Amino acid sequence: MFVRKPLRLFGLSLLILLLALTAVSGQDAVELSWITDLPGAEEVAARFTEYNPNITVRVDKVSFREVFQQNQIRLGSGSSEPDIVSVDAPVVASYGFRGWLLSLDDAIPAEQIDGWVDALHTSSIYNGQLLAPPIWNSAQVMYYNAALMEAAGITPPAPDERWTWEQVTEAAQALASDADADGVNDVWGLQFGQYNRIYQLQPIPESLPTAVLGDDGLTVEGIIDSDDWVKAFTWFSDLHNTLNVSPQGGISSGELFRNSQLGIYVDGGWMINQFINNPLDFDWGVAPHPYWDGGEVTVPGDSWHLGVNPNSEHTEEAAAFVAFASSSEAGRIWFDVWGVWPAHEEMLAEFAEDPANAEFPNLAFVVAAGEAPYVTPRPLTVGYLEYEEILSDAFEDIRNGADVAETLGQAAGRIEREMDKYRE
After folding, report:
1. How many helices (H) and strands (E) does the chain have?
2. E strand or H helix that includes residue 260
3. What is the chain's alpha carbon radius of gyration, rounded to the nearest angstrom?
4. pTM score over 0.85
5. Residue 63 CA neighbour count, 13 Å, CB half
6. Cα(3)–Cα(345) distance, rounded to whole angstroms?
């Protein structure tokens, strides 16, 4: 499934080092600024400085929301800082549209680009230019509580067995307990990690298969209010309402799963390290991400990318850092520090081939690594923030019993109006 790239880690590190040294040769010490909330950022910055002693990276830690706020304020005003820009995958097009990212076409070795998971490379590009190389990934899998399944008389899927959503629904119904006097289940059948975000829910319609956005990157009418979307999210509504197998409200799916209150839990590969390092007190398993019977396999993925501020006073040094931070060497640092799922096919191939991963629980790494070919980019649109926010409202309303067709129709109209500003 995976093909090892000809460029090995040592050669890649050496190449990046030479690029960086060439860029800064003969210059005085340089400090780069980077606003981020990412665990492992300091370790990656420190390793880069080991290779380039005259370049330090000042890591300014802020909250997740503040990353976007600071980017909006500083990049929007033409500030020279931050030099290094943290870019969540879905806003690459938006930042590119606004001219907030420097083209890195000549800064990243072709072999390194070829080593990224394909979908992540796709979302790094806007208007034909490489603007924001990937540093993280977030491919999803299906976790299950094997003890609850056994008690419900369900045979769990094998590690290489991809269940259909139809099978998942049947299992979720068997897993869900009768509601108590408050209408709350003791055990729920199924829930997603991010149950109101298009990122996680995109495969529900996409697997039918159907589109999630028009080819122009702006049109949604006739798509998100189509019969296919209504079908997909009627199923989603039924889970939370008619079937009562998925919890409503502002719950933590991960905590429910850990507390044996959730039988099937769909979330990212990064949870594997968390479950191994902080062991669950029940038998659990992992299977590939589900799909619709007769449909296409499509898996959520992608995560953080990095770019360079075009107004930076140190664009060459910043580009050298981004080249390093998106290399497989840095990918190993991200993984070691926080279990971040890799953006690199080389690392995924190593997971799949490592004899230490032949048995469970480490076998979960192999299952998650096998999802890379099925990862699809999030909708590539300059209006992603508006698209996501409006759909999140719609998904919450649907979870709480709103009419599916009416809700999606209203969302389509709102998004179309928001997209008008990008059509001018």
Report:
1. 19, 10
2. none
3. 22
4. yes
5. 3
6. 8
217: left (phi over 0), alpha (psi -120 to 50) or beta: left
424 vs 259: CA distance, rounded Å: 51
If DSSP codes are grouped into helix, strand and coil, which group holds residue 201?
helix
Cα atoms in the 13 Å half-sphere on the side-chain side of 171: 26
In terms of Cα–Cα distance, which of 349, 290, 279 is closest to 5? Answer: 349
Give the tens place of pLDDT for each residue, 79-124.
999 999 999 999 999 999 999 999 999 999 999 999 999 999 999 9
- The token duo for 138 is 């977030």
Bridge partners (DSSP) listed for residue 125: 130
pLDDT tens by residue, 228-287: 999 999 999 999 999 999 999 999 999 999 999 999 999 998 899 899 999 999 999 999
CA dihedral of residues 233, 156, 256, 268 (deg, nearest 10): -70
Hey, what are 65's tokens? 């929301």
Q: Please tell me the total number of residues recorded for the chain in this structure.
A: 424
The tokens of 223 are what? 């798509």
Please state the φ and ψ torsions of residue 262, each to the nearest 5 degrees. -145, 125
- Least Cα distance to 121 among 151, 142, 96, 92 occurs for 92
For Cα atoms 100, 103, 104, give the angle at the middle one, nearest 5 degrees: 125
Q: How many CB atoms lie within 10 A of CB 371?
A: 23
d(CA 51, CA 184): 56
Q: Read off the pLDDT band of 8 (50, 70, 90).
A: very low
